[in-house]
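Ligand-bound model needed. 6-O-phosphono-beta-D-fructofuranose.
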Amino acid sequence: MSDSPLLTRRPEWTALEDHRAEQHAHLRELFAEDPGRAERYVVRVGDLRIDYSKHLITDETLALLQELAGATDVFGLRDAMFRGERINLTEDRAVLHTALRAPAGAVVEVDGENVVPRVHAVLDKMSDFANRVRSGEWTGHTGKRIKNVVNIGIGGSDLGPAMAYEALRAYTARELTFRFVSNVDGADLHEAVRDLDPAETLFIVASKTFTTIETITNATSARTWLLDGPAGLHDDKAVARHFVALSTNAEKVTDFGIDPDNMFEFWDWVGGRYSYDSAIGLSLMIAIGPDHFREMLDGFRIVDEHFQNAPAEANAPLILGLLGVWYGNFHGAQSHAVLPYSHYLSKFTAYLQQLDMESNGKSVDRDGNPVEWQTGPVVWGTPGTNGQHAYYQLIHQGTKLIPADLIGFARPIDELSDELKAQHDLLMANLFAQGQALAFGKTAEEVRAEGVAEEQVAHRTFQGNHPTTTILARALTPSVLGQLVALYEHKVFVQGAIWNIDSFDQWGVELGKVLAKRVEPALTEGAEVPGLDPSTTALVAAYRELKEV
Ligand code: F6P
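Prediction:
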């Protein structure tokens, strides 16, 4: 049991409450009083320029937040994580996704064993396999070249590679087709393979545990399609050329019928939502090639080293984490929007939803006591320009405080035509315009000065004062993607440390899994399922009736 004071009773916490009660200045006033904040509230890490000037903060707010970080020993927990201590308490595991991007000569020990050589051995095995698929040396069972790669996985075994494949499309082998199947809805696999030739298709079954029902069900159906589908190969030996596995569980992989030589290993100290830079990234590596994959790992490492070494006041993940605490715990914000101004980042926010919400969606502290403070926010968002024509209205003029991250790049990808490249300035003009409109709004006086009729003034007034962080980089390269992901990983870590929760377990997912297994026989066989509540019993009966119509 920890003997440290309850978070909300710490003097650093109550000092922030007092400060919040006194702080009413609008961003318009904060900038008028202190224009220098535009330059001062910028932190650089790697290729990222992170502008946090449009936040409801002053130097005093930042100082008080830093005191909270000091009092809750965020850096102490950070060091314990990097040292390989078992900070995932409820699963009694080390948390070492940072070892996945450690350089070859580094030493990171888990239970006295340096894991870095194992990490690099798997990376080498992945590189060799990826090169063989990309070059056509690895053929299918009939000797045909592999043209299609289908990743089957869910949660962290899907969202990371799917997001990164989308983000780095410009770097992918365009002659190969990549698909990502996650949903146990048979439609997902059906749509993914309906136009593919089994003889040219490689399935990558990605599952840390290799017990996840969605993944095992889809993988089994994929094997049936490969062998017995309309263009089936009708030879069990084909499985060895068309199925590989990414897992920590060699036994289950073998039970499934995948040759252990075709398994790419990772370890229990890599959380699912922190795993796409492990073997789980194999589909991505085949898509972008081993060199680009390693560049991405270098990007992760840049931010890891920054998080470890940068002083608190210039430490980007710490600052972003503290800003989230400021809004969630002292301003009552319930959600956080991530709004990339990049089509290639269309899956980035969905990826962050698991990273953040599965990590920090907790209501007991590390000792199991109920928390008396808000923990992780609802994370949401889609690419910014599309959002502008959908939900931005609520951010601008609704009643909720929604801090947002705006992410953009100075350069479009080289491949675009000149005409399409020219659209990039318009895209980015939208990002900058939104940041300004959200922060500064439009006063009633400004609206009146435009000659707007009095009865319309209230409707056309924008209160502003909506905080945003703007993250800018020159271009979305593999390294920059790694930097962005590591930035958010460590931001989530900082918040979990302050809230004193275990950010690395996910027991909340279990109950639904157990119940689904119990309910299924009631749907398929009409079996009596003891313990179903009356509402669910009625729903099951209605479902069975509809099924028969
Ligand atoms: O949803 C719970 C979860 O355990 C996630 O944490 C994980 O990413 C996902 O399921 C998939 O798990 P696995 O990789 O073991 O199939």
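The two ends are 58 Å apart (CA to CA).
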